[in-house]
Amino acid sequence: MKRLLNILVFVLIAGVLTILGLQFHVNRFARGLMHSKIDSIQPVYTGIVLGASVRPDKSLSPILQDRVDAALNAYKAGKFQRFLLSGDHGSRNYDEVNAMKDYLNNKGVADSVIFLDHAGFDTYDSMFRAKKVFEVNDAVIFTQKFHLPRAVYLANHLGLEAQGFEADMREYSANNSLKRREWLANIKAWFELNIEKQPTYSGDIISITGPSAKSHDK
């Protein structure tokens, strides 16, 4: 019994150290590639906005609205030329990407500069598809600070030359739980990279330098 207890304690300690180690590794990698001021962003061709929840009335949640607004401000400042809106459009009744597109259209952004990734079901899929399906080479990623290190880490390890922008414009009610979730999400990201996981959907190439209409469904 004592030996079994020692083994369980060792496994627990090893697991905690692994989680802490990966958290440190991901954050250290991304630290120099993250920006909190638009002026510090190096100009690139593509701005990637990562999806988040959309309300039943198709309006953007506060987290998602802040991501889109941050990207819009950077676009107006000349920091990128094309939007890639990547999110969950896994059913007819739930659509993050067109909600983002409609929001940008209402702000005066033309369809011609907006590309939609309907199968960005998680951060790994979004980054993989940005590189392989949309042929993005350099990008700035827009999401909140709690999520940004993992997004930047994944993007660069999947072949993108990516920076990140912290789209934190307010306090979020679930902020602490979201931060805790990232600890396990970093393990998932490391695992996905090391097994060279394929995305849920791959699909035909829709180059970010070509016409955006190929990515639109309405």
How would you name the oligomeric state of the polypeptide chains in this document?
Answer: single chain
Task: Report the order of strands and helices.
Answer: HEEHEHEHEHEH
SS strand fraction: 5-15%
Number of strands: 6
Helicity level: 40-55%
Broad structural category: alpha/beta
Query: For the largest beta sheet, what order do the strands appear in spatially?
Result: 1-6-5-2-3-4
- N-to-C span: 64 Å
What form results from the Cα inertia axes? globular
List low-confidence stretches.
Answer: none
Q: Overall mean pLDDT score?
A: 89
Largest sheet: 6 strands, parallel
CA-atom Rg in angstroms: 18 Å
Number of domains: 1
Counting DSSP H or I runs of 4 or more residues, the number of helices is 6
Organism: Nonlabens spongiae
Pfam families: DUF218
Keywords: Membrane, Transmembrane, Transmembrane helix
InterPro entries: Cell_Envelope_Assoc, DUF218
Could you characterize the architecture of this molecule?
- With 218 residues, this protein is α/β, with parallel strands linked by helices.
- It has six helices and six strands.
- Strand 3, helix 3 and strand 4 form a beta-alpha-beta unit.
- It has helices at 2-30, 62-76, 96-106, 123-132, 148-157, 175-194, and strands at residues 34-35, 46-50, 82-86, 114-117, 138-143, 161-166.
- The chain is globular and about 65 Å long.
- The model has no long low-confidence stretch (mean pLDDT 89).
- The chain starts with a helix and ends in a 24-residue tail after the last helix.
- It has a six-stranded parallel β-sheet, sandwiched between helices.
- Helix 1 (2-30) crosses helix 5.
- It has one domain (2-215).
